[in-house]
């Protein structure tokens, strides 16, 4: 059975260069984290990020089209390349969701 979301996916980069995916839904003016996934950047985010997003959505019985949008939250001082990869993936997915 397919879930309905009406929420968003947040891609975060922590100060420790961990990548965190959070599935968020707003209910009664509150943000509810439905699920999250975290892994350490090993310098392979450009090849791993899309696969991790796909696996994360499948685990939650969702498809990319079930999202309202994707947001990037990047702490200041992060690796430039890592931050750019996350921003580009976020912008591309949001463009496709229009």
Q: What would you say about this model in short?
A:
It is built from 2 helices and 4 strands; from the N terminus they run βββαβα. By secondary structure, the protein is an alpha+beta fold.
CATH architecture: 2-Layer Sandwich
Mean pLDDT rating: 89
**CATH topology grouping:** Nucleotidyltransferase, domain 5
- Helix-strand string: EEEHEH
Q: Which CATH class?
A: Alpha Beta
The number of helical elements comes to: 2
Count the E strands: 4
Detail the poorly predicted runs. none
Number of domains: 1
- Percent in strands: 35-45%
Strands of the widest sheet, in order across it, are: 3-2-1-4
Backbone shape? globular
Description:
This protein is α+β, with helices and mostly antiparallel strands and 98 residues long. The chain has a single domain (7-97), classed as Nucleotidyltransferase, domain 5. Helix content is 34%, strand content 37%. It is built from two helices and four strands, in the order E-E-E-H-E-H. It has helices at residues 45-59, 80-97; strands at 7-13, 18-27, 30-40, 67-74. The protein has a four-stranded mixed beta sheet with strand order 3-2-1-4, with helices on one face. It is globular and about 35 Å long.
């Amino acid at each position: 059975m397919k879930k309905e979301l009406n929420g968003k996916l947040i891609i975060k980069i922590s100060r420790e260069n961990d990548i965190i995916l959070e599935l968020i839904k707003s209910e009664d003016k509150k943000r509810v984290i439905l699920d999250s996934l975290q892994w350490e950047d090993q310098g392979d985010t450009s090849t791993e990020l899309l696969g991790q997003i796909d696996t994360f959505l499948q685990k939650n019985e969702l498809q990319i089209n079930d999202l309202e949008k994707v947001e990037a939250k990047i702490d200041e001082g992060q690796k430039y390349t890592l931050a750019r990869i996350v921003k580009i993936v976020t912008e591309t997915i949001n463009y496709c969701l229009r």
